[in-house]
Every structure is written in structure tokens, then in C-alpha cells.
Amino acid sequence: MMKNLLFLFVSITLQSIAQNSYPTIGKIERFDAAFDSLLAKDAKIEVLASGFNWSEGPVWVKKGGYLLFSDIPENTIFKWKAQEGITPFLKPSGYTGILPYSAEPGSNGLIINQKGELVACEHGDRRVSAMPFSSGGKRTLSDNFNGKRFNSPNDIVQHSSGAYYFTDPCAGMPKGVNDPTRETDIVGVYRIGTDGKTTLVVKDLLKPNGLAFSPDEKILYVAQSLDTAALWMAYPVHSDGSLGKGKVFLEVTQMIKKGLVGRPDGLKIDKKGNLWASGPGGVVILSPDAKLLGRIIIGERVSNVAFGEDGSTLYLTADMYLCRIKTLTIGVGF
């Protein structure tokens, strides 16, 4: 299967280089005039590569000018760079044990930390790891809370203080919530402090997934990927790194009931505070006051997004696709 995937990647890459362009897909829906200041009316969704099993966790590597993303079932992190196309970057990416493990053993969410290292949420090894790009192997940032192993760390962000926040649902476990190897009944949001201590900061969600800070870091948004309670929560961030009582930012359960494909998953924030979030129908763009401004529709479930290049290009992982679209805004961190 991997040989077929690589053949397809090479074919797409050569075609794109020869044409100096990429095939396009999907459409844009506009619900508010404010969306025109975020995405041009002639904006196109470009398909950079296809043929993946389930693509996730895109992150732009500024030092090098390329994108990394996970293919969770393939236990692989891939690299995409203009004029080079797709190449395998790291395998295994999230499970180093004896296979088979589960349908989703590999890495999921990826970020570049303040030290310039690649930080990964690893399903199979049930940990959060950090790996330098220059030399040396991975080190474990956290793999348990109070001595009990995590379920399958899913997505992660780093606060300006240096602390990490990550989600830990059961999606990567062989039998999900009923897996006999589960050591904790919590599906929570955790914080890894700069002292290395792991604390539980949210324990009242049923399936936490993507998360992101507001530009001023006063709010932590957390997605819940549950068909019967699909929503984004907003938690106030206290000065000591703990979180206050959360409130529902926006619930979209009815959108799913109406047949829209996808659910709240990964998300990123632009410098104006707008949320670019995987959700029903594709990528939903929400204002800081939870108004639906627009939607980017791929036709497949979008798992996650990331701003890249100069901060104005949005990369999307959507099932078998890696896509991008040029925006009129800039993502936080650029």
C-alpha cells in the first residue's frame, strides 16, 4: 500500500511542477460580509497531494520552509515542500511497539515548540514527545497522569509561558473507550508545566480534540468531536496556567444531524481572533463572538488546519488530501 501511495505522490508532484499549478477542489460558502476581508472571492482550494489513509496534524516549519503532517494509520509523518512534493519524514511516528496495535497507531497533532523541536501527540506510544531536527532522538514530555498512562494524546498547543496543553480522548486505542488497556477513565485536557509536572485542567468533556489559544492567550478553545454534542468550548486562562469554568462557544450538533460531513476537530486562530476550525461541512470560520462567517468545503472530512508560509496560507488535511488556500489574514505565530 505504501508503494502505491508514494507512486501517487510522485505522480502528483511531477504533474504540479510541470504545470506550475495544482488541481483545485471544493467550494467556498459565504455567510457574512466580514468574510470578504478574510478570503478573496476568487480564492481556490488547491490539492497538493492525495492518496493518504487519514491525514492529520499539519504544522509549518519556518526554518526550512516546509509542511509536516501525520498519516495516523500509516504511522508516518510526511513532509511537503514546494518543488519537492511529498517525502516520508519520520516512520514510525507514534507507535514503536509490535504491530498490529490499532487502526490509528501513529502521531496525530504536531507543533514546533519554542526550542524549535517537533512536538508530537503519539497515539500508540500514548505520550507527548519532543524531537530536535538537528541531532538526537525523541524525549518524552509526558506519558501519564498520577501514574496512569494516557489514552491517546490527540492535539497540542504551547503557551507563551512554555507550558503545553493537550487533549487525550480514546480515538487511537484499539477498542476506543472500551479498550482493556485503558488505565484512566478520564478523557481530559492536560497541562505540562515548565517544571515538567502534568496537571489535569479539564475533565468534563466527553471527547476533547483540537485546541487553540486566542491571540491574547486569555481563552483556550477546545473542540469536542461528538456527533451528539458537537461543539467548541471556551475556557478562561488564569495567570497560574489553570483554566476557569468553561462555556459553550458554539454548538453545531444540528449541522451534523442535517447531514453535513465532519465534526469539530483541529483548529487555528488568526491574529484578528477568528477561528478556522474543522467542523461540519469542512472548515468553518467563526468570529471571536461565535458568528459563522464562512465555510471552506472540500467534500471530505477535514481533520485539521495550519497557517504557513508568510502566515497567510492555510493548509488543510482532509481524509486522503493535503490542500491549501490563500487567505487575506495572518495566523497567530507569524
- With strands numbered from the N-terminus, the spatial order across the biggest sheet is 1-24-23-22-21
What Rg, in angstroms, do the CA atoms define?
A: 19 Å
Distance between the termini: 37 Å
Give start-end ranges of low-pLDDT stretches.
1-19
Number of helices: 2
Structural class: mainly beta
Number of beta strands: 27
Order of helices and strands: HEEEEEEEEEEEEEEEEEEEEHEEEEEEE
Largest sheet data: 5 strands, antiparallel
Could you estimate the helical fraction of the residues in percent?
under 10%
Shape type: globular
Q: Residue-averaged pLDDT, rounded?
A: 94
How much β-strand is present in the residues? 35-45%
Structure overview:
This protein is mainly beta. It has 2 helices and 27 strands. The protein has helices at 2-19, 253-257, and strands at 27-30, 46-49, 55-61, 66-71, 76-81, 85-90, 107-112, 118-122, 127-131, 139-142, 144-145, 148-149, 156-158, 164-167, 189-192, 198-202, 208-213, 219-224, 231-236, 247-251, 267-269, 275-279, 282-286, 292-297, 304-308, 313-318, 321-326. The strands form 7 sheets. It has a 5-stranded antiparallel beta sheet, with no helix packed on it. The chain has a 4-stranded antiparallel beta sheet with strand order 2-27-26-25. Strands 3-4-5-6 form a 4-stranded antiparallel beta sheet, with helices on one face. Strand 11 (144-145) and strand 12 (148-149) form a beta hairpin. Mean pLDDT is 94; it is low at 1-19.
